[in-house]
Every structure is written in C-alpha cells, then in structure tokens.
Amino acid sequence: MTVVKTEAAPYLEAFRQRPAADEPKWLAETRRAALDRFAELGFPTRRDELWRFTNLGPLTKAVFLPAASAATADQSALAPYLLDGARHRIVLVNGRFAPALSAIGDLPKGAWLGSTAEAMKTHPDWVRAAFEESDTLGAQPLASLNGAFFADGFVLALEKGVVLQGPVEIIHLGGAAAPQAFHLRNVVLAGAGSGAAIVETYAGGGASWTNAVARVTAGEGARIAHMKIQAEGGEAIHTALTRGSLAAEARYESFTLTTGARLSRNDSLIALRGDNAYLNLSGAYLLRGEQEATTATFVEHGALGGETREVFKGVMDERSHGVFLGKIAVRPGADKTNAHQLNRNLLLSRRASVDTKPELEILADDVKCSHGATVGDLDETALFYLRSRGIPEPAARRMLIESFAADAIESAVAEPGLRAHLRRHLDTWLEKRGS
Length: 435
Hints:
Layout: H1 9-16, H2 25-41, H3 57-60, E1 65-66, E2 88-93, E3 96-97, E4 111-115, H4 116-122, H5 124-128, H6 134-137, H7 141-149, E5 154-158, E6 168-190, E7 195-218, E8 223-230, E9 237-246, E10 251-258, E11 263-272, E12 278-287, E13 292-301, E14 307-316, E15 321-330, E16 338-347, E17 353-362, E18 368-376, H8 380-388, H9 393-412, H10 416-433
Parallel strand pairs: 1-6, 2-6, 5-6, 6-7, 7-8, 7-9, 8-10, 9-11, 10-12, 11-13, 12-14, 13-15, 14-16, 15-17, 16-18
Antiparallel strand pairs: 2-3, 4-5
Helix pairs in contact: 2-7, 8-9, 9-10
C-alpha cells in the first residue's frame, strides 16, 4: 500500500476538484500517475542528497495551489524586459498564454511557435515528448507535481534545416496576492540542421510559485542558444527543470542569469547522445538579502567526442545563500570526451554563504576532463589599486563586482545583442545593490 505524504493532501484535493478537461486519455492517465508519485514522495527534504543544501521552507510552509484562471496585464508591464530585435514574442501571464501581449510574427515554413495548450489541440505528440518516465516513476517530485497540474507553456518546433532569423522571446509574468502556483511545460524540438535563439524571462511579484519543466531536443547538427533570465520579485519562489538531449554534431548553448525570487532552484539534466555534440552550460547568480538560489546540473556524455563547457559564477551579499551542484558523467565508450566545469563565487558579506560541489565521474578512456571551485572576497590588491587612482570605494567595488559577473556573460554569450540585454539586467542588480 502506498503511503501518502501529509503535505500532499491539499494538492490531491485540488486535483480532485479540477474542472473536467477535454484531454487525450494518455494525458489524463499521466496526470493521475504523476500526482500519485508526488503524493508518495512529497516535497524534497535535506535528507535527500541532491537537496541537502537547499532550504525549501518558503515552499513547504504554505500551500501553493494552481492558479484557477488566467490573469491580465498591460503592455507597460513588459517594458523592463523587452528584448531589442525580437521578431517573435510569446507572453504568459500567471502561467497562461496572453495573446493580446504576444506577437508571434511571420514564421518560415516548417516552424511552429505557440502555447502548450494550443499545441495540445493541434500537435499533441509534441507535448507528449515533454514527458518521460521519471514524471511518474522517478525521484523528481516537483516535476511530478508539474505533470499533474500544468496548464500551459510554450512550444517551439523546427523541421529539418529551418533556421529562425532573430531571437524568439518568451516572457513569463507572474503575480499573486495569496500563494498560487504556475506550472509550465515548455518544449523545444529542433530538427536536424535547424537553429534558433531563445530568450526566456521570468518576472513579476507577489507570493507566487513558478514551477517550470522544459524539454529541449536538438537533432543532428541543430544549433540552439537558450538564454534564461530569472528576475521575479522578492516574495516569489522559482523552480525549474530542463531536460535536454543532443544528437550527433548538435550544439546547445545555455545561459541562466538569476537575480530574483526569495527561493529559486534551476536544475539541468543534459545528455549528449550523439558523436561530437557540444554543450555550453553556464550562468551567474547574483543574490542579496535572504535570497536562496541553487544551481544543479547533471551532464551525461554517452557518445564519442562530446564537449562540455560549464562555468557558473555567484555573487552573494548580505545574508544570501548560493548553492552549486554540478556533475559530469562520462559513460563507457564515450572516448575523446572533453569536459570542463568551473564554479567561482564572491562573498560580499560575512553573513553570506555558498555551498559548492563540482563532480566528475569518468568511465571511459582517452578523455580530457577537469573541474574546480573557488570562494573568496573581492581582490584587495585590485581594490587598493583602483582607490589609489582616485576612484571612491563604492565605485571601485562596483567595478570589480561587475567585471566578475560580466566575465561569465562575455565568455558564454557570443551574440552582441544578447550580451547587451544581459548586461542591462546586471546593471539593474548593481544599481539596486547601491554599489
């Protein structure tokens, strides 16, 4: 007999009271099985190895039931987050597609961009690709809860050889006066030789929980650049899981900038399944106050000649807490793998803290792999040099912090417009810090 966790009871009741939906049988069965798995597992605790550094108190002390209906927002709410040069834009408000704020534009033949809810009606197999066995049988309870309750998200599907000109912009706006949850299922399916750049922004305020699960599949020789900005308000909670699969010669470049939310966690599970696939998995987390942010990555090399570049930088101020958990596994037969993992952190306050745990697991021959982590304060020599040149200490400190964080952006993001967009968000964080 399956034992149901106590904290799962409100979610089981909310699921029971859901309005009837016109969904395919497989989805209804998957939702039920996913909820049962969440009820069995409950929320992760510090007894779980992968969660032992993450304090989920803000999530578990309240009940975040799914938002019951769509919300509205006006165009002015988008202004701080709009990307210059974006040709295609999807906006979701409180987890649901907002057509009045979106501008998908003209897409080339063989490209499809729209909401997950719409894709369920026209291309259900694309949405089905976003699920896997771990939703119903694995040990990922937040993904299981998402599978039970997700209402919408975005889908980008590219047929063989289709390359989008200009970035695709996805903006998620959230906000709730009382605890609510927005469960999103996002899908990127890139056929052989296709390509696109995606800029995904999470923003808004209130006591909301955004719980997003994404599937990224890159076919042979596909090129996907995926940039994520998490800038939600100080009461928000943000959890996200990205599952990726790269075929031969595919290239996936991901960068995540975390500046928002009271509690956030970004998980990436990426598998290099084809020969000579390339992965750049990088980011920066900039924290203050009592923010808590975890970055957890698992990269699996399962084919010949794969290459991974993984660099994450953290800046922690005041009483904030950052966590980096990174593992690269090289499976038997994945010879000539070239993998590098680095985590560097700045602590700007005696009360700030960081936990970092980079790992390598190598089960193949003829590989080149390295990993490392550093934790420290600002370089006193550099600070003294700047002050000796007449630069006031606050300005000097800002320059050093900006240089540290900007290096993560410059080394991971090649396109100038996307770099500039990220730098603007970095500048916003620095200005709020009062540096």
